[in-house]
Each structure stands twice: as structure tokens, then as C-alpha cells.
Design brief:
24% of the residues lie in helices and 29% in strands. The protein has 351 residues and is an alpha+beta fold. The protein folds into 2 domains: 2-162, Aminotransferase class 4, branched-chain amino acid transferase, N-terminal domain (D-amino Acid Aminotransferase, Chain A, domain 1), CATH 3.30.470.10; 170-333, D-amino Acid Aminotransferase, subunit A, domain 2 (D-amino Acid Aminotransferase, Chain A, domain 2), CATH 3.20.10. The structure holds 2-OXO-4-methylpentanoic acid.
């Protein structure tokens, strides 16, 4: 693979004690173009601006998909990539739905290895650090005809990160706007899904909420997701989370938490969840916990849920499932506890 190293690394000048999520990028990026019906040779370059034609289809029709994945450094200074096969499968599921050509596995996997090996110093071993990895594909052909692009660019950039959210997580149930609809693109990571969520989120922020709880697009009766996270509730000693459908993203953290919960002997149900059911559980003091899961956030407790004028405050329980599952997940990711599900892969060191 062609590799051009940066002549001036930003490592020394980066303040690793202050990393607002996704604002600092590592020294290099991977890029690969799709032209004349095939993917070309990937290349690693210094991170920096790219040139794009004003007529590029992505700028007009949003034909773009992305992934979010994480790498961690263990105490032996090895970089561990978490469940990369799942991200590879999902970016191609997203690509197919957005009429984008699928990325060959060797380009995705070798690209990650080369990039992370080169930028492994950006992945810190200290507690709480990870390297957030953002693979993405966008339509690069020029032309404003509303049709799929002929040319695409695949890129991977990486960003050292700590916490996604700091502070409380107060949510409001969204009963007007919709994140995803039947037959739509909500089950994949289409860039536009996120763009469409910003306005309702901004309105919720203005009312003092950090995020919204998305409900189904038909009746706004069923809970689907929260912000950019999958959502979970503990009712008594049972965990419930919405079952996957074409309007719910198949989160890799969601799947990991599901497997860990079962491993711990926790009863888990994936099914449709009525907003009313959560209200009932709250009223009868059976709503013990609520939390969100996602690559960026890992496992994030929810402090309150507001429905209309009613705020349901969820107080911390002593034997929190969310905390236990988060600690187990992070222990595996950091290589501190046994990787019982073989989720990690080591990034080869290439000097
Ligand atoms: C992730 O958790 O990786 C996401 O996709 C959320 C992102 C929009 C920051």
C-alpha cells in the first residue's frame, strides 16, 4: 500500500487532557477511490483537506454512509480493535441500501491495520482513552442528476477520544419528529439520518434536554432509539430493548451488551416497547434503570425521561446492570479481562 508519512506530526502539540469528542484527528488518513466500476488501490496520506467538485453528488443528494468503531491500547502497548468484522459487514449493509458499491474486505481490513499501525501513538493506554475510528464512503461523481453516483471515495480517519457525553442525560420523548420510517434507511448508518436528527435535537436542547427518545413514525407509541444510541430499560430484574427492524440501527455495542447480559444470566427481551409500558413501570416503581448504548458512548445511564409535562427521574440503583455491563465491556475492550467472545483483534506492528 502506498504510504506517505506526515513530515510534521501533531502528536506533541496535541493536548490529550482536553479532547472534546471527535474534534482532534490523528496524523494520517486512508483514502481509496471507486472509478470505472472498481475500487482502486488504497493509500495512506497525511490527514488534511481533500478536494471535491462542487457538483459532487454527495453534496447534493447526501449519498454517503459511515461507521463508528474503536481501538484501545492494552498494558503491553498493543492496539486492540473491537469487533472490526461487524463494522465491516455493517458499512456494506449501509452501502447496499444507499446504492453504493461495497468495499472489498482487504481494503477495509488492511487499511485499518496500516493506518492504526502508523498512528498507534494516538491510541493512549491510559484509563478512559480510546481511538475512535471513522470509516466513510461518499459519492464523488460530478452531476446534479438525481441518480446514484458512478464514482465514490472511501476514507478512514481516526480521532483520539475520551467521553462522548459528560454530565446528565435527560431525555424527552419525541412525539412529532421521526428518525426513521418503515422501508427507510434507519437501520443503516446513512449520513442523512444524523442530519435529520439535528433540528429535533436542537429543539430538545433548547428545552433543557440532552437528547430525544425516538418513537415509531406511525403512532409515536413505541420506543425506538435515543439520540444516536440504542436504548435499554431494566424493569424489575429484566432488561428490555427494542427488537431490530428497518427503523432501528443494529448497534454493535447493543449486540455486545446483549451477549454480555445473557452471559451474566440476566433475563433479556428484544421486543417492541410501548412508551406507556415504561410509564406504568415507573409508576409502579419497577423501572430500575434506563441506559443507551453505542460505539461512541459505550453504555450511558439515563437520568430522566420526560413525556409531555411529566418527568420520570431514574435514580441510581446499587447493583446497576448498566454499570456492571459497561465495566465488563470496557474490561474486554482494554484487554484487561478475558476476551470470552473473541471480540478483539490485535493491530500488527509495522515499523
Ligand atoms: C457511534 O456511536 O459511533 C455513532 O455512530 C454515533 C456518532 C454519530 C458519534
Amino acid at each position: 500500500m502506498k504510504i506517505t508519512k506526515t513530515s510534521i506530526s501533531k502528536l506533541e502539540s496535541t493536548d490529550f487532557s482536553n479532547l472534546p469528542f471527535g474534534t482532534v484527528f490523528s496524523d494520517h488518513m486512508l483514502t481509496c477511490n471507486f472509478k470505472h466500476g472498481k475500487w482502486g488501490d488504497p493509500e495512506v496520506l497525511p490527514y488534511g483537506p481533500i478536494s471535491i467538485a462542487p457538483g459532487a453528488k454527495v453534496l447534493h443528494y447526501g449519498q454517503s454512509v459511515f461507521e463508528g468503531m474503536k481501538a484501545f491500547k492494552n498494558s503491553n502497548n498493543e492496539v486492540l480493535l473491537f469487533r472490526k468484522e461487524e463494522n465491516y459487514k455493517r458499512i456494506n449493509r449501509s452501502a447496499v441500501r444507499l446504492s453504493i458499491p461495497e468495499i472489498p474486505e482487504d481494503i477495509f481490513m488492511n487499511g485499518l491495520d496500516e493506518l492504526l499501525s502508523l498512528d498507534n501513538e494516538w491510541c493512549k493506554a491510559d484509563e478512559g482513552y480510546s481511538l475512535y475510528i471513522r470509516p466513510f464512503i461518499f459519492a464523488s461523481s460530478e452531476g446534479v442528476k438525481a441518480s446514484a453516483s458512478e464514482e465514490y471515495t472511501f476514507m478512514i480517519i481516526t480521532s483520539p477520544s475520551t467521553k462522548y457525553y459528560a454530565g446528565e442525560m435527560n431525555l424527552v420523548v419525541e412525539d412529532h419528529y421521526t428518525r426513521a420510517s418503515k422501508g427507510g434507511v434507519g437501520f443503516v448508518k446513512a449520513a442523512g439520518n444524523y442530519a435529520a436528527s439535528f433540528y429535533p435535537t436542537k429543539k430538545a436542547n433548547a428545552n433543557g434536554f440532552q437528547q430525544v427518545i425516538w418513537t415509531d413514525s406511525v403512532e409515536h407509541k413505541y420506543i425506538e432509539e435515543s439520540g444516536t444510541m440504542n436504548i435499554w430499560f431494566r424493569i424489575g430484574d429484566k432488561l428490555i430493548t427494542p427488537e431490530l427492524s428497518d427503523s432501528i440501527l443494529g448497534g454493535i455495542t447493543r449486540d455486545s451488551v446483549l451477549q454480555l447480559a445473557k452471559y451474566n444470566g440476566i433475563e433479556v427481551e428484544e421486543r417492541r416497547i410501548l412508551v406507556d409500558e415504561i410509564v406504568e413501570a415507573y409508576k409502579s416503581s419497577n423501572l430500575k434503570e434506563a441506559f443507551g448504548t453505542g460505539t461512541a458512548v459505550t453504555v450511558n445511564p439515563i437520568d430522566s425521561i420526560t413525556l409531555g409535562d411529566d418527568k420520570m427521574r431514574i435514580t441510581t440503583v446499587v447493583d446497576s446492570f448498566a454499570l456492571k455491563l459497561k465495566q465488563q465491556l470496557q474490561g474486554i475492550q482494554k484487554g484487561k479481562t478475558e476476551d470470552i467472545f473473541s471480540w478483539n483483534s490485535k493491530v500488527p506492528v509495522k515499523v
